[in-house]
Specification:
The complex is a heterodimer of chains A (235) and B (212). By secondary structure, chain A is mainly α. Chain A is built from eight helices and three strands, in the order E-E-E-H-H-H-H-H-H-H-H. Chain B is of the alpha/beta class and 212 residues long. The chains are: A mainly alpha (235), B alpha/beta (212). Strand 3 of chain A pairs antiparallel with strand 1 of chain B, so a sheet runs across the interface.
Chain lengths: 235, 212
């Protein structure tokens, strides 16, 4: 496995040659344009209770709100939470609470954040107040589904391979950053690293993680193909 | 229709958001963007997974150190046994050293050098026996008068029981020969025997002395 060494100020590149404080090797990021609706028009249509306004609001925000809520609170009762959020936004618009239509984006974000905060607050409150568990109440399933659990395990195994391929010093840098939550400045200062070296180590580790992940996917695809071929040849 | 782009949010920023290290202002800007941008939602999801994997793998790697140490030394029980055995061995060695050196015994004062002249006597128990104190360096001046000159003899020192303690070859060439004994002789009676040349190896003379 490739060794990503940051033992001193000079660093080996992918071909084993040594380069000194080379600039980041990150590819220029692809610029993706996102269409932004005419907020004033959209808000006006919602106020007028036009179905097109509701449809567009849902089309623009449904995925983002879903993603945000799922990321913060997990997949339990996600549909209900997304629905509640839209209800709050639409009712607020109809009541005239949104005075600046062009701020609809920020307004939606604020509502979603409040939803998350309210849910967490509710959990804290219920845990504090409830002495007995009502056996009839619904307990949310906080665990991942088997597919997600498997994916998570595979990611961890891949990351372990990445970490174990590093020198002790490089591994310490990543562990301090990701696990021990030390700041980049602190790590660079204490371990005598430049910002470039630090970022390069991180980006290479990430690239390695991505490569291993791709290989894993390819292996899975080959295995699936083999199984299908084997299965069809038996029939 | 106006457009918003992802260019202002690089991977570094996305990762810092995953780690919860953006300022409030930065968070607001990014959240307002990714609520609309599917590509950034995917980037953030990938970043979240990477950070989670890095944390979990970091914990595993850190925990592996004591585990591998345990594997090298075996189980806790095995380690305890090894440690106990090592401690016991150290105690045994210490007892052995103490029993040899016996520091609790009063060591008599040892002089640096002692010299004694040995002459042939008729009886080992007679009054003619020489006395010498215990010394680190003992020099014997042996009377070799009337012995054949220019011959090489074997000199042997035995204790009272006839146990051979030390010997060497000495050259006799005159009325006396001086020999330095390279070891400390404790209190007791000793005999110095002088044997003829290798061809005959007969006992020529015997001298007695006592270390006090």
């Amino acid at each position: 496995m490739e060794s990503l060494s940051l033992a001193d100020a000079r660093m080996p590149d992918r071909d084993g040659e040594r380069v000194e404080d080379e600039p980041m090797e990150e590819q220029p990021e692809e610029t993706i344009a996102v269409e932004v609706p005419d907020w004033s028009d959209l808000v006006e249509r919602i106020r007028r209770e036009e179905p097109s306004g509701m449809e567009e609001l849902y089309r623009v925000f449904a995925r983002g709100i879903r993603f945000y809520l799922c990321r913060q609170l997990g997949p339990q009762e996600l549909d209900d939470r997304v629905h509640d959020t839209f209800l709050i936004v639409v009712q607020a618009i109809r009541r005239g609470d949104l005075r600046e239509p062009e701020r609809l984006m920020g307004f939606v974000r604020t509502v979603v954040r409040r939803q998350v905060a309210a849910h967490i607050d509710g959990l804290v409150h219920s845990r504090r107040e409830e002495v007995e568990i009502d056996i009839n109440s619904r307990l949310p399933d906080t665990t991942w589904n088997p597919e997600q659990t498997l994916a998570s395990r595979e990611n961890i195994a891949l990351m372990r391979r990445v970490l174990e391929s590093l020198s002790r010093r490089d591994r310490e840098i990543l562990v301090r950053f990701y696990l021990q939550e030390e700041s980049q400045d602190q790590i660079c200062r204490e371990m005598e690293l430049t910002e470039t070296q630090f970022r390069l180590l991180k980006s290479r580790a990430k690239a390695r993680f991505g490569e291993l992940g791709k290989k894993k996917l390819q292996q899975k695809a080959l295995s699936a193909l083999f199984l299908r071929t084997y299965s069809s040849s038996r029939h | 229709m106006p457009v918003d782009t992802c260019a202002q949010f690089d991977d570094e920023l996305v990762e810092r958001y995953s780690l919860g290290r953006l300022t409030e202002q930065e968070s607001v800007r990014f959240e307002e963007h990714f609520l609309l941008c599917g590509a950034c939602q995917e980037r953030l999801h990938a970043s979240d997974e990477y950070v989670a994997a890095a944390r979990a793998a970091g914990v595993a790697v850190i925990r592996r150190k004591p585990a591998s140490a345990a594997a090298a030394g075996g189980s806790d029980f095995f380690r305890t046994v090894v440690t106990s055995a090592a401690a016991l061995a150290a105690v045994v060695v210490m007892i052995g050293v103490l029993s040899v050196l016996q520091p609790w015994r009063r060591t008599p004062a040892i002089g640096e050098t002692s010299r004694v002249t040995l002459e042939t006597v008729r009886s080992g128990t007679g009054t003619g026996i020489r006395h010498t104190p215990v010394a680190r360096r003992l020099i014997l001046d042996i009377d070799t008068s009337h012995l054949p000159s220019s011959c090489e003899c074997r000199l042997q020192i035995v204790n009272r029981n006839g146990q051979d303690l030390w010997e060497r070859r000495v050259r006799v060439d005159g009325p006396a020969v001086s020999v330095e004994i390279p070891r400390v002789l404790g209190s007791g009676r000793y005999w110095v025997r002088l044997y003829g040349p290798e061809s005959s190896d007969s006992l020529w003379r015997e001298y007695g002395f006592e270390v006090d």
